[in-house]
Design a protein that fits this description.
Blueprint lengths: L6 H16 L7 E7 L18 H9 L1 E7 L5 H10 L3 H4 L19 H7 L3 E5 L17 E3 L2 H7 L14 H9 L7 E7 L21 H29 L6 E7 L4 E4 L2 E3 L5 H4 E7 L8 E7 L3 H9 L13 H4 L9 E6 L1 H4 L12 E6 L3 E5 L8 E4 L15 H14 L18 H12 L12 E4 L22 E4 L1
Parallel strand pairs: 1-5, 1-6, 2-10, 3-4, 3-5
Antiparallel strand pairs: 2-9, 6-9, 7-8, 11-12, 12-13, 13-14, 15-16
Length: about 500
């Protein structure tokens, strides 16, 4: 579907002319959003990886702005992508879990980047590489063309006995699909690459993963190879855009949805909230503009949505939690930001995946540049506090030793209230019966997202300043008026 000429598009073109005359740089004609699944920042050379591991992304960073401390909202794929596409935190966009029996989707009220841009005359297209960003989760909203794997799987395999390869594309296949059709402008193109997520479809010539006796080094080596191969395919995409004369007029944003634990903290995966899982690479290239080379301060993936709209001279129709990064990109100082994230409790989830556990047992994060809190409501004393300035590897838990910092971050978390909608209470239509649920569960299972039947936790309410006082109902603390803090009984 091609959108016709609209008043909004005319206004955009007039804005472009005005920007050219002012010396502020032209309004980008096109937008390219590339999301890298399960990609750690420290495996890119522009973030300190030795050698030339990622020359394509390094070159992009040299042209644009590299954000050194970008934080995701979760460490599972559909949840974190929903925040990138909406500028909303997980409790706001509604897609909070991937493991439920069926149908947790993006909230009907959530406005997506594609919806906004389609309404302003952009041709919107998405090309994806794995099931967790499929239309099953509602991420297709606003796209004229949404090329995921769900329809293909239905056509190929009616009996649901799929090989894991049916659930993902390798990055060379994704790039080939993207570059086969780049004709329509102005465009918003979202490209999702999957390679580093797992070892199911390795780059050509790499062979089969066999960790042997040394699990961590082998896993890390294969992971690095997958990141390098993905980078080469991204380079092919950039070259195709250049050959068609599209690159120079395109705003390019590259971000990972989350990272990966490669035996850091004894963890070989994601679904936790340590830095290796939620610190992500973020690179923004604005055509024709002077940009800061790097931004050391903390930013969030929810900031991407308003940033893109800001450079296009557009506004969201509803409030978002993200804040435009434009001032930072242009080298202007700004007030520090606080990041929030939540994640279904991976500590107990992955312990053999054999015991029933509460679906509403979440980990919550409140993070500043220097201090980081991982709050565990069901096991309060196992919460974690880190001073990232002196302990960037998060090896010394100060939760009991620095109560003043813990309380301050707990208060910030309580004011954000990420539990305002309980994660285990899905929308009324979120548990459809029949083949859709079967399809989703088997697809996720093949990719490593499995679990047991959920149960509910028992909750109470307290306040960071009066943790000994528990009550059954939310609301301001009766002793000090503070925001309510969710805690397990």
């Amino acid at each position: 579907m091609t959108h016709g000429t609209r008043p909004d598009l005319l206004a955009l073109v007039l804005g472009l002319c005005a920007a050219c005359g002012s010396g502020a740089g032209a309004t980008p004609r096109n937008v390219l959003l590339i999301t890298l699944d399960t990609t750690r920042a420290d495996y890119l050379s522009c973030y300190g990886r030795p050698g030339r591991a990622t020359p394509s992304l390094d070159a992009l960073a040299a042209e644009g702005t590299r954000f050194d401390l970008a934080v995701s909202t979760a460490s599972v794929t559909p949840v974190s992508h929903a925040s990138i596409l909406t500028g909303l935190y997980n409790h706001e966009h509604g897609l909070r879990v991937i493991f439920a029996d069926g149908g947790y989707r993006l909230s009907d009220e959530a406005e997506t980047l594609a919806s906004v841009l389609a309404a302003h005359g952009f041709h919107t297209r998405a090309v994806h590489s794995a099931f967790p960003v499929s239309r099953f989760f509602g991420l297709e909203r606003g796209f004229d063309v949404f090329e995921d794997l769900q329809a293909d799987m239905k056509k190929k395999k009616g009996d649901f006995r799929w090989d894991v390869g049916d659930h993902q594309r390798r990055s060379d296949e994704t790039t080939e699909l993207v570059t086969s059709n780049l004709a329509e402008e102005p465009f918003f193109l979202w490209v999702h690459y999957w390679d580093p997520h797992d070892l199911a479809r390795l780059p050509p010539g790499l062979g089969r993963y066999d960790p042997g006796a040394r699990v961590a080094p082998g896993m890390q080596a294969f992971y690095a190879e997958e990141v390098q191969y993905m980078d080469a395919q991204i380079g092919r995409l950039f070259e195709s855009l250049r050959a068609r004369g599209l690159y120079e007029d395109t705003l390019v944003v590259v971000v990972a949805d989350h990272g990966q634990g490669l035996m850091d903290h004894g963890w070989a995966g994601h679904r936790l909230l340590y830095q290796e899982q939620i610190r992500v690479p973020l690179i923004v290239r604005v055509p024709g503009a002077e940009q800061a080379a790097a931004v050391p301060g903390l930013v969030r993936t929810v900031d991407i949505f308003p940033t893109i709209l800001d450079y296009l001279g557009l506004e969201p129709s509803r409030p978002v939690s993200g804040r435009s990064l434009r001032a930072l990109i242009e080298g202007e100082p700004e007030a520090p930001r606080t990041a929030f994230a939540d994640q279904i409790n991976g500590y107990d989830w992955n312990a053999g995946m054999v015991r029933a556990r509460p679906l509403d047992d979440f980990l919550y994060l409140a993070m500043e540049r220097d201090w980081k809190l991982i709050y565990r409501p069901t096991q309060f004393r196992k919460s974690e506090l880190y001073n990232l300035t002196v302990d960037p590897r998060e090896e010394q838990n100060l939760f009991g030793a620095r109560p003043e910092e813990a309380c301050r971050l707990l208060q910030l978390l309580a004011e954000e209230a990420p539990w305002v909608t309980k994660p285990f209470e899905a929308p009324d239509d979120a548990r459809p019966d029949g083949s859709a649920v079967v399809e989703a569960r088997r697809s996720l299972s093949s990719l490593g997202y499995t679990g047991t039947e959920p149960v509910e936790a028992e909750w109470a309410w307290t306040c960071p300043a009066h943790l000994d006082q528990r009550r059954d109902e939310p609301g301001p603390c009766p002793s000090c008026g503070g925001a309510p803090l969710l805690i397990g009984r």
